[in-house]
Amino acid sequence: SGCQYGDKQYEYLQELKDDSEIKNYFNIVEYEVWDEYGKKNEDNYLLMHAVSEKLDIHTAGSPYLVIGDDFSVSGYTEANNHQIKEAILEATEDENYRDLVSEIKIELKDK
What we know:
By secondary structure, the chain is mainly alpha-helical. The protein has 4 helices and 2 strands.
């Protein structure tokens, strides 16, 4: 990505992929909203805003991380690491888990 915070978040998520407690419970799916030249991917931009609107969260940009249908964080700091890991663990135990991003992506495609 062209974002230093996105790169740091991605590095942390990769570390979780090596964590024996959690590594088999999540996949990383990336959607580039802005490329390294500042060019916007319109589809991914609309997806990001539709998801943030559904979660009633204002996002000013990237990185924007969503887990399931009730956890999201805009931006990245190491202070979020514990929350991110806990959200993944909670999602693995949620019998009613929903992948909100995938659902909204399908809705947008059908419009």
